[in-house]
Amino acid sequence: SLTDLYDGTTVKAKNDFKTLSNLGFDENVWMLDLHINYNYPILKSNPYIVIEDGTDPNPYLIKSQADIEAIPTKGKGLDKSYLVVKDITLDSDYTPIDNFSGKFIGKDEDNLIKITFNGTKNGLFKTIFASSDSSKKVEIKNIEFDGNIYPDASSVGAVAGKINYVGSTCECYISNCVNNATVKGNNYVGG
Fold this sequence. Notes:
Blueprint: E1 30-31, E2 42-43, E3 60-62, H1 65-69, E4 81-84, E5 88-90, E6 103-106, E7 113-120, E8 125-131, E9 138-141, E10 143-149, E11 160-166, E12 172-175, E13 178-179, E14 182-183
Parallel strand pairs: 3-4, 4-6, 5-7, 6-9, 7-10, 8-11, 9-12, 10-13, 10-14
Antiparallel strand pairs: 1-2
């Protein structure tokens, strides 16, 4: 019951119970959020809480090179939605994301988010993977690329080295992006 949360002097932390529904909370209305440092039930409709689940309405936030590099490795997924919220510089040890199939969008279409390559060996994505399924379209937008990309490789570009797709058409959209980066490579070099 709700009284289980209160012991007379303090409210118990979320670790003191297993699920909200066991305590009488409607999980369609209340939640426990692991993304914030707050250990108590909160309303899902709270406008001051950012819920990141990789969907279009609640994209994962990208604030650093580490956030970009975590796309394929931390269970977030290559096919999820990401919102880039600040300018980022990618170091020379940056490894581009392979087989990206989601959405990577800068937060503001009037003031493009800048991604600067600091002597990287490839662009943002090694490969973009798209299909003809319109419900799974790949989208890159509102990004300005700058800096230097100097690989000793082929199929190199600021946005992607190449786009692979299944079917006769490709649901891949790159819009409101500007490339000011210097890109050098052996063969199949683009912006």
